[in-house]
Amino acid sequence: DGYTLWGGYWANGYYASCRNSYLPAAECCDQIPVPIFRMLGSDPIYQYDADPGASDAQPVITLEPVYTGYQNLPAGGGVPSWIDWFFEHNFTDPVMAMGYAQVGQENSFGWEWMKDGLTYQYAKVAELARAGKLAVKTLGDTGRWFRQRFPVTPASSVVALDDWQGHNRSSIWSMNRFGRLNLVRDADRSLAIRDWQIFSDDYAEPFLDAVCAEHACTYDALPLLDGMRWGAARMRFILDGKPLQGGFSGVSSPDPETLSAVWTCDCGARVTLTCSGTRFAVESTLPGLAVAFTYQPAAPEGANTEILLADARTLSYIHTNGPERAAYTLQLENARFEALSDGFRIVPSGCEFAFEARVTR
């Protein structure tokens, strides 16, 4: 989610749509039957919104062995403590269908730059493989394993409930062939949705039938919420006008297509958050729980998405990328939208409510 690739399948593997190589196909008949795997293994908490205002390019916090620091802190694929933390969460926390990471270096930095990190990673991989916690395969064998096991893109997740920086942050990435959603615990210990994108077979890549005449092109998904490009946008859970503070106390997968997370509030109350397909459901015992959706869609990088309040239960979106234009909605069940100066408030009518995303064209 840096440079000019935005909103795609965040980790693991997927079958691309025939009309958009960057996004998974929703149906088997619309997919290219060759799996694509995202390299190389991104920090699930800090990579997404790492220094969005950087002048040249977004900083990298990945498994690449040449990287050894972020904001003057040791992090990345050349740091043993970060490598241990990454492998623990990428392969031992709930991953649903699969957890995947590529060990290696994408650029020709040379052996002196990468040898320490790569040697440590190989030893770590061997240790985990001997313990039966992962399998080591070539990319070709991984693709064949994927095709034999999954007829369509499976749901998967990346879960990091503890913060290697010690700043109280957590991150849960839920992905399926219909979209992705990122739940976070921010540094103030509040619960929020940081990113929510949906995928559509009708949304073609911008240069499927056209030539890119510029020096760069952008590939993206259909954003419902973009915490990177929309001015640190959030859907933040609030109670009595204050952020809902607490922490994630459990993450599970009740079925192959569903990810469920439990948030335990400081007051002891629990909120269950469930992602399945294009639906996100909330269940709690907290009367008065609401969600504040704040954003700055007019920021230069996010100006290609318009959001309108169609009615009390529906937000209407129009997103453009080059010649491509898509219309889609976010609809509420048992809740209503109220307009704010910088976004919207979601006000439930009870203790259970849900969001449903739908592509209309």
- Distance between the amino and carboxyl termini: 25 Å
Topology order in helix (H) and strand (E) letters: EEEEEHHHEEEEEEEEEEEEEEEEEE
Structural class: mainly beta
Task: Report the portion of residues in β strands.
Answer: 35-45%
Molecular shape:
globular
What's the Cα radius of gyration?
20 Å
What's the count of strands?
23
Please give the count of helices: 3
Largest sheet: 10 strands, antiparallel
Q: Mean of the pLDDT scores?
A: 92
Task: Estimate the helix proportion, in percent.
Answer: 10-25%
Extract low-pLDDT stretches: none
Describe this structure in words.
- With 361 residues, the protein is mainly β.
- Helices cover 12% and strands 40% of the residues.
- A hairpin with a 2-residue loop joins strand 18 (305-311) and strand 19.
- Helix 1 (80-92) packs across helix 2.
- The longest helix is centred in the middle third of the chain and has 20 residues, at 111-130.
- The chain starts with 12 loop residues before the first strand and ends with a strand.
What is this entry, summarized?
12% of the residues lie in helices and 40% in strands. It is mainly beta and 361 residues long.
Fold blueprint:
Layout: E1 13-17, E2 20-24, E3 31-37, E4 69-70, E5 73-74, H1 80-92, H2 111-130, H3 139-149, E6 156-160, E7 170-176, E8 179-185, E9 191-198, E10 222-226, E11 234-239, E12 242-243, E13 246-255, E14 258-265, E15 270-276, E16 279-284, E17 289-294, E18 305-311, E19 314-321, E20 324-333, E21 335-340, E22 343-348, E23 352-359
Antiparallel strand pairs: 1-2, 1-3, 4-5, 6-7, 7-8, 8-9, 9-10, 9-11, 11-12, 11-17, 13-14, 14-15, 15-16, 16-23, 17-22, 18-19, 19-20, 20-23, 21-22
Helix pairs in contact: 1-2
